[in-house]
Amino acid sequence: MSAAHAPARRWRPPPLIANPYLRYALLVGAALYLALALGSVEVNWARLSDGWARGLRFVSGFLEPNFSRRWDDIVQGMIESLTMTVTSTVMGIAISVPIGIGAARNVVPRPVYYVCRSIIAVSRSLQEIIVAILLVAMVGFGPFAGFLTLSFATIGFLSKLLAEDIEDIDPAPVEAIRATGAPWPSLIAFGVLPQVAPRLLGLSLYRLDINFRESAVVGIVGAGGIGATLNTAIDRYEFDSAAAILILIIAIVMASEYVSGLIRGRVK
Amino acid sequence: MPVTALPEGLRSWQRRTPRGQIAVWFGWLLAVAFTVFCWRVMTQGTIWAFVWDAPTQAADIGARMVPPRWSYFPALLKPLWDTLNIATLGTLAAIVLSVPVAFLAARNTTPSVAFVRPLALFVIVASRSINSIIWALLLVAILGPGVLAGIVAIALRSIGFIGKLLYEAIEEIDEGQVEAIRATGASGAQTLAYGIVPQIMPAFAGISVFRWDINIRESTVLGLVGAGGIGLNLESSLNTLAWPQVTLILMVILATVVVSEWVSAKVRHAII
Amino acid sequence: MLTIAGLSKRYAKGDKALDDVSLGIPAGQVVGLIGPSGAGKSTLIRCVNRLVEPTSGSIRLGDTEITRLGGAGLRRARRRMGMIFQEYALVERLTVMENVLSGRLGYVGFWRAFLRRFPQADMDRAFAVLERVGLLDHVDKRADELSGGQRQRVGIARALVQEPDILLVDEPTASLDPKTSRQIMRLIVEVCAERQLAAIVNIHDVALAQMFVQRIIGLKAGRVVFDGSPEALDTAALTAIYGEEDWSRTIREVEDDAAEEAAAQDAVRVLRAQATPAAARAL
Q: Which pLDDT value is given to residue B7?
């Protein structure tokens, strides 16, 4: 039979990168980078063995957190963090909605679009902590600097995502409302906002969450909030107090995620 | 009912029932009152003279920040290399650690919904709730200052991020394909490899590159708490009020962030 | 009522969607616009209310030259033109009433619209058209709870509440089943008769068009290749519009359907004869 003489056909899965030279060059490059990178990490083994004991203390601190030693500081820090979170999220939303609409290509003229996109780009390219450092230098220590920082960061985040949602909406209702002769503000109120409202709510709740987490960071550089308390606790190697603060942060984040899940479920 | 009959056979319509209308107004009132209350609590200790003085301060700092001290640039190359390593090695470590966590957390692959899944979810939430700078703060205290603390901090923060997005991707897979593989008589591990992994591979690659991009951004400031990288130079320049150096460092950070965003966008585009 | 002269539209990519189209439509006349996909039907009606900018030519609605209007003038002109869409184009998350009232947006200010405080006169108009299209029981339902036919009735109500002089109707039945399609077409033709509205109806289904409209315009590659009564649309005309094909089935079906629909058609004619502009306004 001819089938018996046919050479056995072999099959291998096709490689991810078809060009063999490129494939091997990438592999060698990656290996080389890893070797160089790992080689340049300086590890102080003596310090590390010290750290082992501290690490254990931190873990045991997590198991037996100490809420009482710094209780007053923790309460003060948490109040600052929470109020800062609420005010900065509200302020951020109030500014982000117009900017987000302005940054949606499909509902505004080109010049407005470019202006709003630049505002977003500036807000997004600066990390919170750097902004916080600069603002503390300008308005002094305390939660007001943190409020400004978080509001500023919220603008970049919310406006960008809102603008992307608006660019993704169903264009047919917008065209229909435009065909009724509606002026631009009414067009936005009837054709655009109802379509993005649930997403806007979800994003705002998500940002509330992020702002709370970030409020713990800005405190490290003096912009108020629980971060300052945490910083002191860690600086003094009071790992049980630090663990108590971290547990509180985790608990609040979990609670807020649970609540925002409930709210988002109700608004569909 | 929002529709109400008026005399003379006319009908009126409102978006909400009168009671609903009152509830909505009351809700708004409550929200505004709560925000104002938070504002008052927050600004109790604020010294407004400083706030009103801010524009002057800003102008003052701005004037001292220019021109950037260009000659400082060569000293930034090694910290920049460290920053890149912190982000990349930290991301790689997080990828290795987050994959098992994600499979344990996903409802359809976890060995036990009652015991293992909540544990995996807690690992994810704990990792996500704590910013990488705070992880770094902690690790510098434990491991001592340096790049290693930065790498571990980035890894610990990224486990939650990658783990969460990955387990959501696993939960959204098409069960039909998995069933088809299982129907061929494949073992559990084979089902995983042939039925589940190919479905989540693009999402996984995309998530990893996305997190790498974020990690570059975050690793530039880890040095502020002593965890290595270009942030160390920022910290020391700020402490000595060397504003022209601060300007240069901020520009380098900005450029790094823009480049990493561009690279990650390109790579993600190539994957999808 | 509507006079189009020498209308052309060339898209940026260079393809000519409309090529020197001229036609006039008197008040009260319902025109079916047929033609293959890409013939420019949709572009033509969107040029009339300038959702698409024409390249050259003139469009007059009554005494108003539409092509030269800008800003507020264009919005005032759009109030006089009601548009009905293929996929209904309702705002899904708003209620039926809000969707209908959105037809008054050209008349009321932003804050009234934003707070949904429309004048009582607008409410009366909205209730009247909702009653006419048979949706009074669904006022507070959200648009995404309705069936396809009901949604298109909301679309019709939204167009009517503008109190337009002309209806621009883009494939009103393309997403509907055959029975609902006929009901919707009948409703459109009836309200046009009651209110003495001119209408341009883009339609794919030739048989359906012949059943309901008074005049058919055939468009091919942006040019008018047929303009006449539904009865005059024969095999030769269809070949001119769509190209070579066995058209006998299509036409025979039309005749069968026509028998069924005769009664409805008669009713419409009677109504049309009775209707005067004054009576229409009273409705």
A: 61
| Type of residue numbered C95 | T
- Residue C64's beta-bridge partner residues? C61
Query: B133 with B84, same domain?
Result: yes
Between A8 and A248, residue with greater pLDDT: A248
Number of H helices, E strands in chain C: 11, 10
Say yes or no: B86 and B29 in one domain.
Answer: no
Q: How far apart are CA B131 and CA A253, in angstroms?
A: 12
Over 60: is that where the pLDDT of C268 sits?
no
pLDDT band per the 50, 70, 90 thresholds, residue C277: very low
The residue range of the domain holding B38 is 3-49
Of the partner residues A127, A242, A246, the one whose CB lies closest to the CB of residue B221: A127
Give the three-state DSSP class for C17: strand
Q: Which domains does chain A have, with CATH numbers?
A: 20-61 (no CATH), 70-266 (1.10.3720.10)
Q: How far is A228 from chain C (nearest CA, A)?
A: 44
Same domain, B194 and B103: yes
Task: Report residue C265's pLDDT band, with 50, 70 and 90 as the boundaries.
Answer: low
Q: Please count the residue pairs, one from chain B and one from chain C, whose beta carbons lie less than 8 angstroms apart.
A: 24
Pairwise CB contact (< 8 Å): C116 & B2: no
B20 touches C at CB < 8 Å = no
- SS3 percent helix, strand, coil of chain A, rounded to 5, is 80, 0, 20
Using a CB–CB cutoff of 8 Å, tell me whether A144 touches chain B.
Answer: yes
CB contact under 8 A, A186 and C110: yes
**Backbone φ, ψ for residue C70 (5° rounding):** -140, 155
Range in B68-82, C123-137, C208-222, C265-279 with the lowest mean pLDDT? C265-279
* Mean pLDDT, chain B, integer: 88
Taking phi first (over 0 means left), then psi (-120 to 50 degrees means alpha), and beta for anything else, what does residue B241 get? Answer: left
CB atoms within 10 A of CB A234: 24
At C161-195, the pLDDT tens digits run 999 999 999 989 888 888 899 999 999 999 999 99
Give how many domains chain B has, as a whole number. 2
Nearest to A58 among B84, B85, B142 (CB): B142
Those chains having 3 or more beta-carbon pairs within 8 angstroms of chain B are A, C
Would the pLDDT of B34 be above 90?
A: yes
Q: What is the pLDDT of residues C72-110, one digit of tens each?
A: 889 999 999 999 998 888 998 899 999 999 999 989 888
B82 and B11 part of one domain: no
Residue of B124, B134, B219 to mutate, testing the A interface (most A Cβ within 10 Å of its Cβ)? B134
